[in-house]
# Entry
Amino acid sequence: MKYCAALFFTLAALLAAGPVWAGGSGLNVIVVVNANSAESLQLGNDYCQQRGVPPQNVLRMTNWTGGSVNWSLSQFANDLLDPLLNLVASRGLTNQGEYVVLSMDIPYRVTDSAGNQNSTTAALFYGFKAAGAYGGPNAPPANTVNSYAYSELPFGEAPPDLAPTNAFLAMMLTDTSLAGAESILQRAAASDDTRPTQAVYLEKTPDEARNVRFPEFDNSVFENQVAGNAAVIPIDSGNTYFTNLFGLQTGWAGFTLAANEFAPGAMGDTLTSYGGYILDPTGQTVALAFLEAGAAGSYGTIVEPYNYTQKFPDPVDYFYQWRGFTVAEAYYQSLLNPYEGLMVGEPLAAPFAQPGTATWIAPAGGTALSGTVALSAAFTAAATNLPLTQADLFVDGTFYETLTNAGPAAGNLLTVTLNGDTITCTVETNDTPATIAANLADALNGETNTTEVMAYAVGDRIELQSQALYTPGSNVTLSAGAGLGTGAVLTTGLNAARPAFLDTTATGFLYLGVENPPAVGDWMQLTVLKTNGVSATLAVTNTTAGATIGALLQNLYNQINSTPVLETADGVVGTDYFDLDGLGVPAAQFFLYARTPGLPASLIQATFTTSSDLEPAFSGSSQVTDNWGDLLPRNHLYVSSGLNALTVNAAWDTTKLADGWHQLTAVAYEGTSVRTQTRVSRTVQIQNTPLTATLAVLPPGTNTLLSQQLQFLVTANTTNLSRIELFSTGGSLGAVTNQSAALFTVTATNLGLGLHPFYALVTDQAGHRYQTATVTSFFPVISLTLAGTPPVLAWPAALDHQYDVQFTTSLASGFQTVATLTASNNSTLQWPVPLTSPAGFYRVRLDQ
# Structure
C-alpha cells in the first residue's frame, strides 16, 4: 500500500487539544523496522505517526534478509540487540526508551548453538535464557524467572533482575498482511481511555492438558471485583464462540475466532503448545488469531513446552489492565517465566488509563526566545485518587530535565481504621508509594490480633485479607485517608477500594493426584469429614494385573460423586479428572471442591492415604482450601503521591540548545504505579546568535513514486559554515562539511511509505548551531483537489490501480477507509464527499 497526502477538508480538528497517551507514550517507544522490507518500513512509519514516536526513536535493521520466523542467537545480537543498545546509548534514551515495537518481517524465534529456543520479544525483555533441562515437574528453570512479574510497579523502577543489559517491554506488531497489521494498530490505538464494559471470559474447558490455568481464575475475579470491575467472569464452556468480548483466556488447541470478536484494547490468549508459531502454523490456534479478531495483545509460545502455567499469562493481567497499565505492562507483569513466549500486538494500548488535562501557559507561541525564559504549564488530574506527581520536559522528543516533583512529603500522616481500630503511619524522607505501602502493611500487621486482618504490600497497593473465619466481609469495615501531619505540603494519598470487605464467590478446592503403576493389591482411601461432623470413608483396591493408575483413581473419583452424604450443600464434589497415561506418564489427578462458596463451607477435612507402592500428591489430612487466599474476605488500599492540580514554573536556559525551531513537550505522570502520562506540547523558536537557516523541499512532481527521489535544499544566512546535516525518520540522512549550502537527495524507498519529518542542523565555524523548522512529507505524494457543490475529491490515477479514500475526525485517532475505487484508465479519479460527513480530514491511499 502507498499512503498519499492528506487533504484538510476542515481545520476544525486542528484546533482541538492534542492527544495524551497513557502508561508510557510514543516518547518511550523504540520502533524497529527491517529496512529490506517495504511493509516493515510502512507499518513502522504508520506506528510512529499514530503514536507520536520521535524520529530518532526508529532503528533500521539494514542487513537482515533471512525471513520472518527464525534466526540464530548471533544473528539476533548482531542485527537487532547490539544496534538497539547502541541507539539507546548514542541518542540519550537510556532512561526514556522502555518499549520496543518490532514492525513486521523480523524473526520471532531465536535459537542458540545448543538448540535452546527463546522468543525475540522475551530475549529483548530480559535476555536470552539458555535454560537447558526443565527444573522439575511443577516449574520451569530458575534462571528464567521474571522478577517484574506481580510487582505492580512502574517498569523503570522494577526491571527484571536477570536482564544482562537494558530491559524492554517488547512486542511484535505483525500479521500475515500489512493491511491486517495496520488494522490491529488502528483498533488498539483507538482504545485508549475508552474504559470498555464488555465481558472478559476466563474459560474452563474439557481440554485437560490445556485447562491448567483455571485454579488461577478465582484470584483474578476477586481482585477485579474488589476494585469495582465485575466484567471478569469465569465460565465452564465447551466452545470458544463468543462475541463482543473484552478478553478471553482459554485452553483449546484449535478453534476459530470470529472477526470483531473482541472490543478494541482487549487481550486474549490460549494455553497451547504452538500459539507462538504465528507464521509457521501447526494446526493449532496461534496468537495472531486473537489480534485478527480485534484484540490489542496476545501471547503464545514459540517452542513445544510443558504446560507450566508460569510460562503463560496469569489471568490477573486483566486486573492490571483495569488499573490502567498498558497491554505490554499488564502482560509482562502476569508472566513469571516468559522466555519461550512471544508477545504480539500494540504495547501502548491502555483502555482504562485516565489521563488528565493540560494547558501550556508560557512561553507564548510565535515568539523568538533568547536567554533565560519562563516556562509554565498547568496540569489537572483525571480524578482525586489519581494525582499528578512529576512533570518532565522533553525537547524534540528527547528527555531534557525534570521540571517539578511532588513526591510523598516527609511527615504526611496516613490513617487506616479497621473495625474501629485505628493505625497510623508517617511518611519518611525519600519514601515512594511502594515503600509507604510496605511500611503501612507492616504497621497493619502489627495490629492483626486486634483487627484480624493481614496486609500484603504489592507495589503501591496493599491487599487486605480478613482472618475472621466466620465473620462476613460486609461486617469488616475499612476507612483510610492521609493528612498533612508535620509535612510542609500534603502530597501523599491513601484510598480504600471499598468501605467494607468483599466476600469471595470462590469455592475451596483440594488437589488430589497420585503416580506410579499399581500392582495387584494396591489401594487408596479417602475420608471426608464435613463441617457438621459427619464423615464418609471411600476406598478402592486394584484387583487387575496391568491396570493403570488412572483407572484406579477414577474409581475413587466416581465414588465421591455418587455418595449421597457428600452430595449435600455441605459436601464435596470431584471435578476435572485428568488421566496422564495418554501422555505417557503413569499419573492421574482431580480436584476435590466444596459444594458451597466461601471459607467456612470449605473447612472440610480430607484424609488421603495409599499403599506404599503409590505416590500421592499429599498423604495425610488437609482441608479443602488449597486456594485459601481466594476464600478470605478481601479489600485494597492504594497509596499515591502528588497533587490534583500540578503547576510547573521553571526558568529555562535557551542558550543550551541550538538556535532555531524546537518542540517542547511537558509530561506529567500519575502518582501511582500506573504512571499514566498527560502531555502538552508547544513549538518555539530560539534566537541567541545571528545564525539562521532554512530547509526547502524540492519535489520532482505532484505524484511522486516511491522509487523516485526528493531533494532538500539547506541554506544559511552566512557562508561561514562547518557542517550541514539532514535528519528524518531513523536519524541522520547525511551531512556535508565546509559548504555554504547543501542539496540533499533522498530516495523514498530508504524511508518507506508514510509520514516523515525532515529538519536540518547547521553549524558555523564559531560553533553556533541552528535547527531549521521541521518539514513533514508523505511518500508518495498525490495531489488532491476538493471542488464543486456538492464537493468532490479528485486525484490523478493510474490504470488498474486501486485507491482507498480514508477519513478521520481527528489526526490523533487514525484514518478509516470509507471507499475503494479502481482506475479504469490513466486519468483522474473522483469521489463525491457525502453531505452528511462530519468535519474532518480525508486522504487517499494507493493499494496496488
Observations:
- The longest strand covers residues 659-670.
